[in-house]
Fold this sequence. Notes:
It is built from 6 helices and 12 strands. By secondary structure, the protein is an alpha/beta fold. The chain folds into 2 domains: 8-132, Response regulator (Rossmann fold, 3-Layer(aba) Sandwich), CATH 3.40.50; 135-231, Thrombin, subunit H. The strands form 2 sheets. It has a 6-stranded antiparallel beta barrel. Strands 2-1-3-4-5 form a 5-stranded parallel beta sheet, with helices on both faces. A hairpin with a 5-residue loop joins β7 (140-145) and β8 (151-159). The termini are close together.
Amino acid sequence: MGAHVIPVKVLLVSPDTQTIETLSHFMQQAGMCVEVRSDITSATRSLRHSKFEGVAIDFRERTQALELLTGLHKMTSHDGVVVLAILDKNEDVPSTFHSGANFILERPFASRLVVATLKASYSLMLQERRRYFRCSVQIPVHLSIAGSTREFVATSTNISERGIAIATPIPLHVGEQLQMTMALPGINKSVGMSGEIRWSDGSGRVGIQFVQVSPDVTELLRSWLFDRLQESLPETVGSNE
């Protein structure tokens, strides 16, 4: 892998052994961790229990492939998943794109085209991986409720590009608007943003979605999370092997 390759998870759905062997080889070279399923039922089960950044679906059985694609789009956990459709030559490419595919892999596979397609799809999958990555971190978070002068300090439990989970001694309720200020580890300045409480477990753990974040803070948070994501990978990832 190259020095900056971060693995993404891809579900490869195909009943064809040769297709599986060929694409698994190229996907692994592209920095993709591949899980293989041969039928729609087992693929759907995997999607319900695991998070994937990409799904490659063999359209040889087109009705079943479309059924899986339709179900995939209904899963909120996979609303940004990248879909690669595996087609035989001369199959209906336009309608496949219209059905929700992002990329096409056409049989018989041409190495140059497969590599180029996987490289382009990897970039989108990495965006999805970064969007959902949650970094476990315990830092003070200074909070104030919108419309109130009351301020208090909570402790973060994890943070992502989209929001933060905190442990708070102050009762908070779903729908409340908050102002937050925190200092990310290794960053020599505090950052502020607005948020809305999206869930509460009733015992002091609360999930907050960011709703107003300046471009500068967004970029700072993304960069910080990207560094934490790299640090979280096994030592073998990121080497030049």
